[in-house]
Design brief:
By secondary structure, the chain is mainly alpha-helical. The chain has helices spanning 8-24, 29-57, and strands at 59-61, 67-69. A two-stranded antiparallel ribbon has the order 1-2. It is rod-shaped.
Length: 77
Amino acid sequence: MEPKKLSFEEAIAELEQIVLKLEQGDVPLEEAISYFKQGMELSKLCDDKLKSVEEQMTVILSDNGELRPFHVGGEEA
């Protein structure tokens, strides 16, 4: 599946499989490099998805439907 179309959970699962293969140590060098590149792409995808969610979580809707900054503990700065 194309990395950009994967969900966060699917990307993590693929990344875990790559790590398991590389940890076995019996992967030919060229294949290991390919796995490493794929793992880096998946890692970036996961990071991008987490940053996107973090950005979405920094604002909440007020009672009147307006967006406002969200602060931990519900306090406003």
